């Protein structure tokens, strides 16, 4: 039906908000402990202590539930750093990425959500939106650096922020590497150096 919100996308209040919080917490716990394809709405309802009819009516599918979980994670994520230095801001971003990916719960949760995005369109779209929100939040660091004259004026802020986290995700997911703060610092230095060299300067239209 045109104009009808996708399941799980309406932001509720009161008791409905408490139900959503309980269900999303249960879904996050389940994903952190198991695979996306094992996500069962009836089991989630039992974990959350709510009626399964409520869960099926509100979310309908595991993909919609994963999408709402990602939307909630984006809303709850920390705001960007604002240190007055590009190097320190990007370092803070990289360390936050490493802290999240190495956390005993959050790390497993992100792996499960990334896996979900490969087999479910709703989860994939939600994951894309999650990273769009986070990259836009941290791109302010790059815009500030441009305004201070630290970077070429044509620098693409989104590309610089993406360049910070890209090698960290690659090391974790493709190489199975255990990330450290030293890896975070190296990724931040590399992105900052590339930005200063004009690697991510956009060509004139």
TrEMBL record:
Origin, by domain of life? Bacteria
Keyword line: DNA-binding, Transcription, Transcription regulation
Which is one GO molecular function term here? DNA-binding transcription factor activity
- Organism, by scientific name, is Streptomyces spectabilis
What is the designated name of this protein? AcrR family transcriptional regulator
Q: Which residues bind DNA?
A: 40-59
Query: Where in the numbering of this chain does the HTH tetR-type domain appear?
Result: 17-77
Does the keyword Transcription regulation belong to this entry? Answer: yes
